[in-house]
């Protein structure tokens, strides 16, 4: 009995120490970038098989008030918004209200080349439509309140970069169009649809359509880094990035999002598979993008990943289905990217 007891104690001690070692490895990866106390920072979460095994905050959430970052801090997630837009489209398809093979002209009759551009092309960045973030005139509207139709009108008559299906080229305009279509089909605003059909269903109580005016408890403030120090982020009107980049969330809510996707809470298995399936260009070449996710590999294992960047914030999330590992990192300075750190953490597994 004594030998058994000692063996058990040694096993538990070994498990505890290996856990500590693993935590130290994660810490060391994060501290390569987020290694100062009195500057903007970030929050990181790691979950394995549905359970959080690491959650830590680094740096400051507000430099002027000197408040520390907290694990429940709320960040703008930038282009990770596209995951939610893509799933919203698939939800509407599941309800029989649209089809991803529908042409854009079905929803905007006068859209140039709209008979040949499908929702599928918008979802996987193969439409060829001009990306509005690359237009020089973007500064003219960056702080204006724009309706979804006004945003579409801003870029719709621009010359195309290529014909639909010819190339993969990351494109924010396509997701603005998808936001407009979500509103047209559902009869709700994009903000209302995402809250009612995704945030509320997944229990994401600390996720919102971004705003600089509403009081949001635990908000992390965004910063830029200049040669002489940090400055507050550039102000934009969130009706401009809209369905391509205007959501806010926490690491715990983003984990709830992953759990909801894995458990088919929001989509059935068939629709979920569409989001995570690679597609081919017109020349037969396979692209590493589904609907709202990059589909890559980390250490030989398939990964679903996406990052985001918007004034003052950067974000990155990776899911390894084979190991049921989810890693998410959120930063409140666009000078600090969590992208490689998150991928390296996932690689530890």
UniProtKB/TrEMBL annotation:
Principal location listed in the UniProt entry: membrane
UniProt domain Beta-lactamase-related: residue ranges: 33-334
Keyword entries, A-Z: Membrane
GO cellular component: membrane
Record Pfam families: Beta-lactamase
Subcellular location per the Swiss-Prot or TrEMBL entry: Membrane
PANTHER family linked: D-ALANYL-D-ALANINE-CARBOXYPEPTIDASE/ENDOPEPTIDASE AMPH, PENICILLIN-BINDING PROTEIN 4
Protein's recorded name: CubicO group peptidase, beta-lactamase class C family
Taxonomic source organism: Moheibacter sediminis
UniProt lineage: Bacteria, Pseudomonadati, Bacteroidota, Flavobacteriia, Flavobacteriales
